[in-house]
Amino acid sequence: EPEVTQTPSHQVTQMGQEVILRCVPISNHLYFYWYRQILGQKVEFLVSFYNNEISEKSEIFDDQFSVERPDGSNFTLKIRSTKLEDSAMYFCASSQQGSNEKLFFGSGTQLSVL
Amino acid sequence: EDQVTQSPEALRLQEGESSSLNCSYTVSGLRGLFWYRQDPGKGPEFLFTLYSAGEEKEKERLKATLTKKESFLHITAPKPEDSATYLCAVQFGGSQGNLIFGKGTKLSVKP
Predict the structure, then answer these.
(1) SS in 3 state form for chain B?
(2) Lowest-confidence region among A34-48, A86-100, B78-92
(3) I need a surface site. Which of A57, A88, B2, B44 has the fewest CB within 10 A?
């Protein structure tokens, strides 16, 4: 069964450093998402991406965050200057048809900011 | 104020002991209600989508139902492998796939 793959599975960084989280969505999917889950808390929406542009973003997704689809297969989340509170599990997801459609999630990248 | 509330937070069952999980929501203009299963250290895994009140979906020992303000996930004769956190999420209005999740119900099934 096709799946969303995320790398790395764990990332440790120093506060103020830039990190890039990588995702390979399912190949025929057109809509891409990033969510995050702080330990013990809810899964929270960050951003959705379609047709090479952001279609929706949450209040969490401020100027320190950016997304990119650099080629036909990868989808990345960049955090420019990490803060302690950015420590969380980051999930990439994709769907074929967008709204009202089920999302397929990757296994996540655990980001630890020291 | 939480828009999606799940109860109970945790549920411990004996194998074979049926029960129900609840998800209530306050958003208007519901476009879909989703149930996901999440195992420790993993991403959510899709179970069901419900779109309108009265709708029901079934998969193996799980059955999801939807009313105007809440959804239930019924678990019939659970097995230890059903142990996981069950997440409810809603999509509303003009969102482009933005899901609002509840905190989840952590289910433990003992043999």
Answers:
(1) CCCEEEECCEEEEECCCCEEEEEEECCCCEEEEEEEEECCCCCCEEEEEECCCCCEEEECCEEEEECCCEEEEEECCCCHHHCEEEEEEEEECCCCCCCEECCCEEEEEEC
(2) A86-100
(3) B2
Contacts with A103 from chain B: Cβ below 8 Å: 34, 44, 46, 97, 99
A102 torsion bin: left (phi>0), alpha (psi -120 to 50), beta (else) = beta
- Region class of B61: left (phi > 0), else alpha (psi between -120 and 50), else beta: alpha
| Spatial distance between the Cα atoms of A89 and B55, rounded to a whole number of angstroms | 33
- CB contact (8 A) between residue B97 and residue A103: yes
Residue contact A43–B101, C-beta within 8 A: yes
Q: Which residues pair with A65 in a beta bridge?
A: A79
Tell me which chain A residues have a C-beta less than 8 angstroms from the C-beta of B100.
45
Residues of B with CB under 8 A from a CB of A: 31-32, 34, 36, 41-46, 49, 51, 87, 89, 91, 95-104
What is the per-residue pLDDT across B20-31, written as a single tens digit (0 to 9) for each?
Answer: 999 999 877 888
Contact predicate A82/A19, CB 8 Å:
yes
